[in-house]
From TrEMBL:
<dbReference type="GO" id="GO:0016651">
    <property type="term" value="F:oxidoreductase activity, acting on NAD(P)H"/>
</dbReference>
<dbReference type="InterPro" id="IPR008254">
    <property type="entry name" value="Flavodoxin/NO_synth"/>
</dbReference>
<dbReference type="GO" id="GO:0010181">
    <property type="term" value="F:FMN binding"/>
</dbReference>
<keyword id="KW-0288">FMN</keyword>
<dbReference type="InterPro" id="IPR029039">
    <property type="entry name" value="Flavoprotein-like_sf"/>
</dbReference>
<comment type="similarity">
    <text>Belongs to the flavodoxin family.</text>
</comment>
<keyword id="KW-0249">Electron transport</keyword>
<protein>
    <recommendedName>
        <fullName>Flavodoxin</fullName>
    </recommendedName>
</protein>
<feature type="domain" description="Flavodoxin-like">
    <location>
        <begin position="4"/>
        <end position="143"/>
    </location>
</feature>
<comment type="function">
    <text>Low-potential electron donor to a number of redox enzymes.</text>
</comment>
<dbReference type="InterPro" id="IPR050619">
    <property type="entry name" value="Flavodoxin"/>
</dbReference>
<keyword id="KW-0813">Transport</keyword>
<dbReference type="GO" id="GO:0009055">
    <property type="term" value="F:electron transfer activity"/>
</dbReference>
<keyword id="KW-0285">Flavoprotein</keyword>
<dbReference type="Pfam" id="PF00258">
    <property type="entry name" value="Flavodoxin_1"/>
</dbReference>
<dbReference type="InterPro" id="IPR010087">
    <property type="entry name" value="Flav_short"/>
</dbReference>
Amino acid sequence: MKEILLAYASMSGNTEAIADLIEEELVKHGLHVKRAEVYDIAASDLVLAESIIFGAYTWGDGELPDDFLDLYDEMDDIDLSQKQMAVFGSGDSSYDVFCGAVDLIEEKIKGRNGNIAVPGLKIELSPFGEDVEKCKVFAKDFAEVVAKSAAS
Ligand SMILES: Cc1cc2nc3c(=O)[nH]c(=O)nc-3n(C[C@H](O)[C@H](O)[C@H](O)COP(=O)(O)O)c2cc1C
């Protein structure tokens, strides 16, 4: 069974709630999810993983959460090619840069030759209503890319 590393940072639970929805949907699609808080993950875990989904809330002025900083720097030393990856996050659109952490992580992945399997998912605070569906579609689309890349 294919394993997805789902690593996220969440301070007040909103990003974690998105992770819950994504994990549930990935499992429905027959994938095994290794879930972790990002501060428990090292670059060596990324090297071993075939597929990775990152989640992060945005802090400061469109910045990464502190929990993400070490891994973000460590990623400079690894090659992410051959890996299917995607990023989601929670933010608050009253700030100037909505969900800036999602964009920063995507840029890093691209800079390390990783494949962005599905476009970044940006959710306003905690997911409800239509946003719940968006989270499910994000996970379903990711599962389909993983299945296709496994078959090829
Ligand atoms: C000091 C501070 C700065 C923030 N800066 C931003 C920001 O620049 N852009 C944004 O979209 N959200 C910003 N937020 C909002 C959080 O990203 C948002 O509350 C998010 O839902 C928190 O996710 P969590 O519950 O997973 O910790 C900020 C929140 C705080 C407290």
